[in-house]
Amino acid sequence: MPSHPSAQEVAGRKGDQRHAALAGSRAWTIIAAIVSLLSAVAQAADSPRIQRLEQSLKSEGTKATDAFWREIDSAGTPLIERVPGRADRMWVTFLWRQTAHRDATDIGVVGIFNQTPWQSHDGLTQLTGSDVWYRTYELETDARAPYAFSWPEGRVTDEKPLRKELRVGGMREIFPDPRARKQIPEVFFARETPVAEDYFEGPDARPERWLQQRDGVPRGAVAEREVTSRILNNTRKVAIYTPPGHSKKNGPYALVVLFDGLSYLQSAALPTQLDNMRADGVLPPVVAIMIDYIDAAHRQSELSGEPAFGRFIVEELLPGLRGELHLTRDPRKAVIAGASRGGLAASYIAIRHPQIFGNVLAQSGSFSWAPKGEPDGALLREVAEKPALPVRFYMVAGTWENPDRMLRYSREMRDLLEKKRYRVSYSEYAGGHTFLNWRATLPDGLITLIGQQR
Description:
alpha+beta, Rossmann fold, 3 domains, eight-stranded mixed beta sheet, 35% helix
């Protein structure tokens, strides 16, 4: 989400706290008005189905809307229609039905982390003379993205919100779409009960062929344990997936180490995907070690190129598990993976310990990061200064992510690695900074790096 000056910062500039608060209030009003104007302009691209409904209302009245809602209730939301003559574009229409129990005035649509074409809380428009509120966007047909509805804080009294978020214009309460056809268990990089987050996908979105449990496919086991580090002087939880039939007599097993473990366990459905990929013969039997972080402060520090954290992985965690789980010692069969700050950490650790990890799977890696006071892109400088190492990279980033940070530095990292003759697979997807998108690209990354049909 965008950050805004605090009242204290404004007061420091103006020298008067009261005047600053008033100025801040006026600024919020102006920003909100601008957002509303831009939203109105964007709303000109109406859905053909909404246009037909508008015409039907003139002759059929409520019969037209009743039939429309029966159609929508059956199909689910949002409404998705291809743009005629443009094979790679679609209209996505978010819909809300006005009820006597909830005033839809000032309802908006929002996306997780605000990395979507709808910025902040784009308002829905009421179709005149009906109970239909809608907002249409023209998007890529391969897009996949989470969304939710929002109201001003305190406006909704008949349902508990999923969460609250500070958006342009003030605090908003976030609610699910009761007609959503798809949901993902989202944990937001945290150890907490997953929240069912609504999402949509276009007709050409990357297939998720290994996502659902299949009858007749043997399932691996997941065991959670606490691991204490003397190097870091802390204790964390680690979830370990072992494939069906795992035994010390078999193997050695290919290895995947992932950061933000709960997100890969829950949101990315990693155990189910590994079961199915093994059953289809595209991956060998894999042991996956999903490492949680202790809290947000530890995550920021440990996943930001902290050498001691890499030492914990290679000197404490893996030696303790290697014999127990019969893990490979071949770096070409070992992957270290992560998303966002986790993608940065995975890259740092492989570059510093290539004798352990020969593969990096970085999803929207935070390659712009640098220690305070240094220019952006600290890892890029470290890579540039070293000779090329026997490490292969699989990298992805979203075209809806911050173009000056995530996209720019992902592309610069790709270019640098290619220049130094690393093996690099790089792609971009239509989506934002979410595990919904990383879940879909994870199988391709694993197949590229350690697949049996490479």
